[in-house]
Design a protein that fits this description.
Length: about 140
């Protein structure tokens, strides 16, 4: 059933804007790339570094906790361009361990990762995202 939902999302996602239009065809690649580059911090299935703290936050030692990307935290508050910039260039917060992946991933690979974790968002969150960023998932 999960594969059926996954493939249904693949067929429905035309992706953000014209620049992202080819990323939907790479959803399976996005999962593989996510697992390789993102899951060590953001967790398997994008549940975050600490599922009890999906929005991330600070540990007692002062280090940051990577947030969930599965729709349970704030990633859906960010437009497609900002999500892309975070993956490509890393966090703007100098205290964040979020690295830049622009030297390891090409544009289509970055877009595929974003399409993958957005495919994990519940339908309600996808609807709210489309209200904020019309046409971004269609």
């Amino acid at each position: 059933m999960k594969k059926t939902i996954f493939h249904a999302i693949l067929s429905l996602v035309a992706v953000f804007q014209p620049a992202f239009s080819q990323a939907a065809s790479h959803l399976v690649d996005g999962e593989s790339l996510y697992n390789r580059y993102c899951s060590p911090c953001h967790g398997e299935k994008a549940v975050g570094q600490d599922p009890a703290s999906p929005n991330g936050g600070w540990r007692d030692d002062g280090s940051l906790i990577a947030p969930a990307l599965d729709g349970t935290a704030h990633s859906w508050h960010h437009g497609p361009e900002l999500l892309y910039d975070y993956v490509k260039s890393g966090s703007v917060n100098p205290e964040s361990p979020m690295p830049s992946f622009g030297d390891r991933l090409d544009d289509d690979q970055i877009k595929a990762i974003i399409v993958y974790f957005q495919s994990l968002w519940p339908e309600k969150i996808r609807g709210l995202y489309l209200q904020r960023f019309p046409g971004s998932l269609e």
